[in-house]
Amino acid sequence: MASKTHTFFYKKLGRHYLGDEPRKTDYHAVATAAHYNSRTKILVVAFSIGAFYLYELPDVNMIHSLSISDYAISVALFNGTGDWVALASRELGQLLVWEWQSEQYIMKQQGHSSEMTCISYSADGQYIATGGEDSKVKLWNTQSGFCFVTFSEHTSGITGIQFSRNKNFLVSCSLDGTVRAFDINRYRNFRTFSSPERVQFSCVAIDHSSEFIVAGCQDVYDMYLWSVKLGRLLEVISGHEGPVCTVAFSPVAAMTTLVSGSWDKTIKVWNCLENNSEHETIDLFADVTCVAYSPSGEHVAAATLNGHITIFDVKSATQICSIEGRNDLAGGRYEADVITGKKNLEGKYFTSIEYSVDGECIIAGGNSQYICIYHAREAVLLKKFEITQNHSLDGLDEYINRRNLTEFGNLALVEKRDELEGGNVAIGLPGVQKGDMASRNIKPKIKVFSVRFMPTGQSYAVACTEGLCLFSLDKGII
């Protein structure tokens, strides 16, 4: 027997202009999100000026309001009881939970507003430190996945970061010409190291005893050595003829060896704590992008711009083996590419490498969507991971759409934009690939900026275009 259909009729009881209040602050404010809790009969309305308002229905009385930022709130949502309201901002990368009755935050999380550039594990693997182009240093808990402290002392992009072995502090270097040491227990910047002249630091390293810090420069081709205890500059180490892009101290307590890599196609082995002028030079066939010490301190691996990873013996400065990894990075094409896939492969290389805890394997990542793990002695590929399947990023598709290549140019370079999408935003200059990407319709290129093994060897972390990704053998960690 067919059920009877009932016709519903709706009647307008009133009209209320909820935008009048936020437009007192900004005339162009528009509502971006709303949610109604039927249990408490409260409506939350969020606006593009970063403020939200709570209204009690059916009388539409405003009972609460708060401004959380200057960016548009993308999502607003009540919990079941209506006591908490969750708010998220897509442009700011912020998520918070607000208890409106007691007027306090239950949770507040915010990631980097731009790309992460470097990461480092603490000695026990409990924390991960990240640095980004937004000049922020953040500490994350590997178990909860939450950021619990943010350091904002730097004024330019972070280029290097490393934990001390005693887990009491971490150091970071920046393009603002400073190297800063942060106390993990008191959450403060207790040391700031600078050079006699204004330089831009590109890499930083701490020795095994956590008493000395060295940082390389990208403009004057020198390295600076400081004492953490004294807080003063000890030596200026010169010898490279190009930007110093990577430095690493020996992980062995009894050794004071320092290895540096540069764009002058050399790596140098220094005994900087004993004799500044004593060093061994190892010539390579391409610019160096990253170096890594083996846990035993006997070998050092160097990644170069030709896609190779070359392993040397530190004492004899002789080559042990070479890994040709360029073909392992193949697989992605950019929409704006006008060259063949074979020619595009010549631009693939590793930007970050590290030895495993046992020294048997090397993990490597670069300007590709793949993470490669190689056997160090046999120089063979053991495993290759794809870090994302997000096709809103550029560089994941193996083939590009040739129909976009018209006689008038590449249609992929033409920005398609709806009217007032994202509000009244200023469009950046053509070809800009950094900055606030939320205000422009672009596809960020997938890249791996840094990769690090957990000290226990059970997981590894990747800083890429997607953010901070953790890969683990233990199912309970993720």
Walk me through what this model shows:
- The chain has 478 residues and is an all-beta fold.
- It folds into two domains: 22-110, Thrombin, subunit H; 116-412 and 441-472, 7 Propeller (Methylamine Dehydrogenase, Chain H).
- Helix content is 1%, strand content 45%.
- The chain is built from one helix and 37 strands.
- The strands form ten sheets. It has a four-stranded antiparallel beta sheet with strand order 1-2-3-4, with no helix packed on it. The chain has a four-stranded antiparallel beta sheet with strand order 5-6-7-8, with no helix packed on it.
- Strand 2 and strand 3 form a beta hairpin.
- The two termini are 52 Å apart.
- Mean pLDDT is 88; it is low at 418-422.
Mean pLDDT: 88
Strand runs, count = 37
How many structurally independent domains?
A: 2
**Radius of gyration over C-alpha positions, nearest whole angstrom:** 26 Å
Largest sheet: 4 strands, antiparallel
Strand content: 35-45%
Q: Quickly give the CATH architecture of the largest domain.
A: 7 Propeller
Characterize the overall form.
Answer: globular
CATH topology of the largest domain: Methylamine Dehydrogenase, Chain H
Main structural class: mainly beta
GO cellular component, one term: Pwp2p-containing subcomplex of 90S preribosome
WD repeats: 109-150, 151-192, 237-271
Protein name: (Mediterranean fruit fly) hypothetical protein
Organism: Ceratitis capitata
